[in-house]
Write a structure and sequence with these properties.
159 residues; PH-domain like; 26% strand; single chain; three-stranded antiparallel β-sheet
């Protein structure tokens, strides 16, 4: 069976969920650094500037992330100055979690955690997924298909 390839990128609102406190702290540093009569005001301004560069890097990193779900693999691409690709064979996926932080709930986002038997990527977080996007059911269907196709069966020993 041929499935359509799905490509996901984190929503830009995930940046706000991740960096809200850093953003507020940088803003406070700019305000304190701009006040007259404050000792070492240039230090506060420089701290705000450094935090701004850090947040810019994290924004570019987040926007450069891509998750691709093919017929047989889940591919995670990431990096700014160099790119990396992590591959997880779908038949190795064991379990799924959906998590939502308080800010993600407000912004309508979620994080999906993929647990797999892969040695290099045992846990893969798919961050910044829109709340209404159904990825887990799609993955479950493809995982089941790949396990049947490769004649892989899971045995559990429960007491």
């Amino acid at each position: 069976m041929n499935y359509k390839t799905i490509s996901l990128r984190p929503d830009w609102r995930q940046f706000i969920a991740d960096e809200l406190w850093t953003l507020l702290f940088a803003l406070a540093m700019y305000i304190i650094g701009g006040l007259d009569g404050i000792p070492f005001s240039s230090v506060f301004f420089c701290v705000g500037l450094a935090l701004t560069f850090l947040m810019y890097y994290r924004f570019v990193y987040l926007r450069g992330m891509r998750y691709t779900i093919t017929d047989e693999q889940l591919v995670y691409e990431h990096g700014v100055f160099s790119r990396s690709r992590d591959f997880v064979e779908l038949y190795r996926i064991v379990d799924y979690d959906e998590r939502r932080s308080f800010l993600q709930m407000i912004l309508g986002l979620k994080t999906i955690i993929i647990h797999s038997g892969d040695r290099t990527t045992p846990n893969l977080k798919i961050v910044g997924v829109r709340e209404r996007t159904e990825i887990v059911n799609t993955l479950r269907e493809r995982v089941a298909f790949n396990r049947l196709r490769m004649n892989i069966h899971e045995f559990a020993n429960y007491i």
